[in-house]
Amino acid sequence: MGFSKEEISKTRKLWSSLLRGIKTIFVLFTMFLSFLLISAPIFLAVADALLPSALLHRFSSPANLSSHLTNYDFRHSLIDIPLISIIRSAVILCVYGLCDGPKLSRGPYLTITMICSVSSLAYVSLKAAFVFGEPSIGDGGGNYFRAAEVALFLCSSVLAIGHIIVAYRTSCRERKKLLVFKIDIEAVSACKNVYPRYQKILQQERLK
């Protein structure tokens, strides 16, 4: 048995609707990815300010956190790791907000991000050498506390490296935008220079 014309038309409409839905989802997904890429410095700064603090709060009681502040010891206290992350993210976010296109392409944003990330990474690495060079002490006192310490140090280090990567990619993107804008300006200037000459030639031809 063959299909009737109505069934064929319904099938075609169904397939066309399905294709339109897939295209719409693809466009929305592409726009969402583009939004994430453009807003990557902001999202990364927020994550840098929240994640280390959340990890420290996860395996430390409020009383222990206050004791870390009052009885700070570089070899044992971990309160400075989230504080470093908060300061780093605040500085980078402020610089990013104050910079425009040219300054984002080559200027304060990339330089300050590199300085903040590399210095904080060096501090965290030095502290990790002291912390993990001694027996674990803390709330749990066992493998769980040691794993939480490792997670805290890794989180801060990975976020510092992430700031460098995002700043470099943002700088490259803004540089490309400025290059395209410069080409457009040169093209417009060339057209403005050519157009009066063209008008003058037309007037001369008309007078002939």
TrEMBL record:
What UniProt keywords are attached to this protein's entry?
Membrane, Transmembrane, Transmembrane helix
Keyword Membrane assigned: yes
Report if keyword Transmembrane helix is assigned.
Answer: yes
Q: Which residues cross the membrane?
A: 21-46, 78-98, 110-130, 150-168
Q: What is this protein called?
A: MENTAL domain-containing protein
Organism field? Arabidopsis suecica
